[in-house]
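> call design_seq(struct)
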């Protein structure tokens, strides 16, 4: 049996792939300015500067859109914690280091644009938003079980970037506002490029050390936590977003989990030893169970939405 490679050996082996994908990213990424996505003419002073403080009736967004925006923005706000995790588990040297800093700078742009939009349009309560940001950032990242080391980190961010892409995209649609939709489409396009970088690197790790990488992927998927885990109201907001198609179990399975596993050729690989095979089997069972849970979730959701409709309520409690 061959000896496992250490994280440092894996990073060194994958450095040429990191460089290639960094260059690919830089050639494809578009620079954009957050201020171009904010309707500044709608802005007004708050009470501290002689204007009026926020009140719910000022918001043009539905409750679902507000909750989704808050969840997505707080996730972006938690960037320092994500930067720390990535910087600690990837190398800070060479193309790895360049990637970590570039990625961080791009992510920061997302939070800037979304906050400016929400505050200027008075779409959400800015005081509650700030309180939630303080709590969420003070809690830091809620690590999925077994997080730590390069392989689990790169597996996690692959799925996490794709999940945020889906969530931003659907939040844009739910806002029913062309400016918000354009902004979130722009952000979702960034998340897609981030996902491709991580997916390609994790795929290369799978080719390099399949029996180490596949257990890491299985561990991350079977313990998957959305990046917003730990923020105030995360459960309630998550349920609401799932119920209204911002990010639900079917999207998780069909738009996030399955396409990536297919890209990595997980279920048809022939390079696995016993440890990799066992992880693949566990992953296969997990995916099958997820598919069954999707059906159960949708039945429950349909019943719940039907009950709400007969109550004639626009309330989502
Ligand atoms: Fe982002
Ligand atoms: Fe991203």
């Amino acid at each position: 049996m061959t000896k496992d490679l250490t994280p440092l050996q894996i990073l060194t082996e994958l450095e040429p792939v990191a460089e290639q994908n960094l260059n690919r990213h830089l050639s494809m990424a578009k620079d954009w300015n957050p201020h171009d996505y904010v309707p500044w003419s709608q802005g007004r002073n708050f009470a501290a500067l002689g204007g009026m403080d926020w009140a719910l009736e000022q918001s043009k967004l539905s409750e679902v859109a507000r909750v989704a925006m808050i969840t997505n923005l707080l996730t972006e706000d938690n960037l320092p914690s994500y930067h720390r995790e990535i910087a600690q588990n990837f190398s800070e040297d060479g193309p790895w280091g360049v990637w970590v800093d570039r990625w961080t700078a791009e992510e920061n742009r997302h939070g800037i644009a979304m906050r400016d939009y929400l505050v200027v349009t008075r779409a959400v309560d800015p005081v509650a938003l700030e309180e939630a940001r303080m709590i969420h950032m003070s809690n830091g990242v809620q690590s999925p079980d077994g997080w730590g080391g390069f392989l689990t980190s790169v597996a996690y961010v692959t799925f996490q970037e794709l999940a945020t892409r889906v969530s931003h995209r659907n939040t844009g649609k739910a806002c029913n506002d062309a400016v918000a939709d354009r902004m979130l489409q722009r952000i979702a396009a960034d998340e897609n490029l981030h996902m491709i970088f991580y997916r390609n690197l994790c795929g290369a790790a799978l080719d390099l050390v399949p029996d180490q990488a596949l257990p890491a992927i299985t561990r991350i998927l079977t313990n998957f936590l959305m990046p917003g885990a730990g923020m105030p109201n995360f459960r309630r907001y998550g349920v609401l977003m799932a119920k209204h198609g911002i990010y639900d179990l079917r999207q998780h399975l069909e738009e996030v989990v399955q396409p990536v596993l297919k890209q990595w050729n997980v279920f048809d690989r022939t390079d696995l030893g016993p440890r990799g095979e066992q992880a693949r089997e566990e992953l296969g069972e997990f995916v099958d169970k997820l598919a069954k849970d999707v059906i159960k979730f949708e039945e429950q959701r349909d019943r719940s939405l039907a009950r709400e409709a007969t109550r004639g309520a626009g309330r989502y409690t």
